[in-house]
Write a structure and sequence with these properties.
The complex is a heterodimer of chains A (about 60) and B (about 475). Chain A has about 60 residues and is mostly helical. In chain A, about 50% of the residues lie in helices and about 0% in strands. The chains are: A mainly alpha (about 60), B mainly alpha (about 475). Chains A and B meet through α1 and α2 of A and α5, α6 and α7 of B.
Chain lengths: ~60, ~475
């Protein structure tokens, strides 16, 4: 097959990474639904920022 | 809840507390601040060369063609990415409620990263340059970057794998996304391009350049903003679900936008149209992020008066909104026909990388360094001055280059104007660019001095 814009090895390399990235994105998105990020407890994670809060740490 | 302390605070920690060593974060932060200052000097010299082209004579090491890639690579990888990595080493263990997986591996990563940056200084000044935008480093340094990034990735992923809390805060998502996307973006931009020629090579290169900003500096920058805005304001994030919408829409949209750098160029029209469409769709993740962070600050804006980190953070959010509105707009064919290749582009790029992501990194450094060393910040006054110098200098720089870029583009679109006349006409713009650059460099000096004086100075007072 003659070389075209679509048949350079580098483009296949990019196709492969695009496909891998897309599949991984789909997998992790579905996984995030299963893990409850979109459910009732979905907002709990935001309080992790304060788990080592200065004021808490400095309370004797 | 298990309390967490930095190693410097260990004497006051109760039994059973988590003591964070933070050695890796220290090395990354201090070296990145030093590079910020050193490469800032290069930046000022480059700006001066626009006004006085004969400055520094004809010595090859100091020509514009060698200093410019050093400035770009030094700021991107020596300062910004290194500072972001240092802040990730500080933030991720705390969010996971565990110690960093391996401080030894982290210190080895910091050492290797410094070897890479010093290697970049020597090779780029010597003219050893691959000739591709943002991918100027010679291949042997590229391999070292890949090795260092794998070491960084293993350490962060293993820390996350050992986390105490099942749910992951959005900062962890963005940091992990950055690590994975960087692998893809960096390999494509620095290695896949070796096997391509002509238009394909240019297309891959611009895919890399745009995604270096969009899939490397954006996710790690937002990771930092999502952590430090709630921490510095002591206010929970407005909505974690909305932050997830922003994360996933960024993941799906960003990768297709690179070809907008080649509008009106010799690439397929369908590819140009896809790049334009996805560039416009970028407004979805951008608005999700900006609304969320603004809503977090609702009723808390008064805190900006007292808090330098918050000043930098919220100014960075405004610049993020502006730069991400500019991007889709100048991806439109009609606007692009005027601004492409003009001074508008460095004005836009500096607002993204300096005005937004560097502001986030500066804020994180101002917040983290006193806590890591358990010392009060050396000078709140200097910190305020560093903010205003960077802010006013930055605004002067960005707006001057936008206006100058439009003017330049209009002149270039008029074929009756000789090119050299368009160069001479821009001189007043470049004088303002130089003065603004001096102001920004003053801000960098004040920031770097304040951080180093805090880290190395005498412990007069513990951080609060």
């Amino acid at each position: 097959m003659p070389a075209t814009d679509y048949t350079y090895p580098s483009v296949y390399f990019a196709y492969l990474f695009f496909t891998l990235s897309f599949l991984l994105a789909i997998y992790f998105f579905v996984r995030s639904r299963k893990d409850g990020y979109w459910g009732e407890q979905g907002e709990d994670a935001k309080f992790q920022v304060f788990q080592d809060d200065d004021k808490i740490r400095r309370t004797p | 809840m298990q309390p967490q302390f930095s190693k410097a605070e260990a004497a006051n920690a109760p039994e059973g507390a988590i003591i964070h060593d933070d050695a890796t974060a220290k090395w990354f932060l201090i070296s990145s601040v030093a590079y910020f200052f050193i490469v800032g000097i290069i930046a000022v010299i480059i700006a001066a060369k626009f006004v006085w082209p004969d400055l520094m004579g004809t010595m090859s090491w100091l020509t514009y063609g060698r200093l410019r890639p050093l400035h770009v690579n030094g700021m991107l990888f020596g300062w910004l990415l290194a500072a972001d990595m240092g802040l990730a080493y500080y933030v991720i263990p705390r969010l996971c409620g565990v110690k960093l997986w391996s401080e030894k591996l982290g210190l080895a990563t910091a050492a290797l990263w410094n070897v890479i940056i010093l290697g970049a200084v020597v090779t780029l000044l010597a003219g050893l340059n691959q000739g591709w935008e943002y991918a100027e480093l010679p291949w042997y340094l590229d391999i070292l970057v890949v090795v260092a990034w794998i070491m960084f990735g293993i350490n962060i992923f293993m820390t996350v794998a050992n986390r105490k809390y099942q749910a992951m805060y959005v900062t962890i998502w963005y940091t992990m996304g950055c690590i994975l996307w960087t692998a893809f973006v960096y390999l494509t931009g620095n290695f896949a391009t070796l096997f391509a020629t002509g238009t394909n090579q240019a297309n891959l290169n611009w895919m890399y350049v745009h995604n270096a900003v969009g899939l490397i500096f954006t996710p790690i920058g937002l990771a930092i903003a999502y952590y430090f805005i709630p921490r510095a304001s002591n206010t929970p994030l407005h909505s974690h679900k909305l932050s997830m919408v922003g994360f996933w829409s960024l993941a799906f949209v960003y990768v297709w936008t690179g070809a907008h750098h080649m509008l009106h160029g010799p690439i397929s029209q369908w590819l140009q149209t896809i790049a334009i469409a996805f560039s416009l769709m970028l407004l979805i993740p951008v608005w999700a992020v900006v609304y969320n962070l603004f809503a977090t600050m609702k009723g808390q804006w008064h805190q900006l008066r007292e808090s330098v980190p918050l000043k930098f953070l919220m100014s960075g959010v405004v610049f993020y909104l502006l730069t991400c509105f500019q991007g889709p707009m100048h991806s439109l064919r009609t606007v692009n026909a005027i601004v492409s290749k003009t001074d508008w582009i460095p004005g836009h790029a500096h607002m993204a990388v300096l005005g937004c992501f560097s502001f986030f990194a500066i804020a994180g450094t101002y917040y983290a360094v006193p806590r890591i060393w358990n010392k009060a910040l050396h000078s709140d006054s200097l910190a305020n001055w560093s903010y205003w110098m960077l802010m006013i200098g930055g605004l002067g720089f960005f707006t001057t280059l936008w206006l100058g870029g439009f003017w330049q583009g209009w002149q270039w679109n008029n074929v009756s104007i000789p090119f050299i006349d368009t160069v001479i006409a821009l001189k007043p713009i470049w004088i303002v660019r130089f003065v603004s650059g001096l102001m920004m460099f003053t801000g960098i000096v004040l920031f770097a001095y304040n951080i180093l004086a805090t880290a190395l100075g005498n412990p007069e007072e513990a951080a609060v």
